[in-house]
Amino acid sequence: MKNHVPVATIMTKNVIKLNSTDDLTKAEALFKKHHIRHIPVVQGNTIVGMLSLTDLLRISFADAVDEEAMEVDTTVYNMFSIEQVMARHLVTVSPETTIREVAEILASREFHALPVVLDELLVGIVTTTDLIKYLLAQY
Questions:
Q1: Keyword annotations for this protein (predicted)?
Q2: What is the DSSP letter of 33?
Q3: What residue numbers bound the domain in which 102 lies?
């Protein structure tokens, strides 16, 4: 297996993002539409937080996983802002960080996605799924 492959080779570059001023209804719609579980929260292109589907489910009684549901009771979403629900103290990596280093971070922490930043600007996201796909491609 290659030891010094940069995470830029496996990260998602066309990142689905939320602005810190967006609402949680929009977040749920993005999770469902794109079948994703993590969305970086930005102000401009600077990352300020990360919202996960798990974060949203913690505050909601809505079935946010059911893509068939057309109407969701969003009352609880109006009680919170994205900034109140998102994770703020993020671990980030650069595009040059090796895939091995990313795997070590994800294996030792309790999260499943890392924002990839260059000069404080969000340039990608790497998830445990990206790592698994990379490892499978090696065999």
A1: CBS domain
A2: H
A3: 7-137
